[in-house]
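Lecture notes, unit on protein representations.

Consider one protein chain, 130 amino acids long.
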Amino acid sequence: MLARPRGLVAFVWFEALGLGRQLDAARAVTRPMAHVLPSFVLFSVPDGLWAFAFTQAMVVVWSGRWSRASAPWILLGPALAIGSELGQAAGVVPGTFDVVDLLALSLGSALGLARLVKPRMTSALRGDQT
């Protein structure tokens, strides 16, 4: 939000929440940095962080346990993130497809799932019976 174009719908949400002035102040402070950062840091990294945060939140909510009940919720973030980018490529979701965004979303999702997978891998390496 700090370096994104003002036309994004999320700016309307900030205004509706009464946070428009605060966002404008933060944008003014960070504007000089936006010109020196690579574009993937400004545009793709936030997407990957969103995918990571959502996926990790679902893993935490479900206590890191994979089950029939938890799987749809845990996979919701990666499905929305990666699916929306692929939808842009297919022209069914508004926006511009970007392969760097797709990579960032995929990496963020995979890292979000790492906490879920790690205990199983560790147990398997130790030879534990689960």
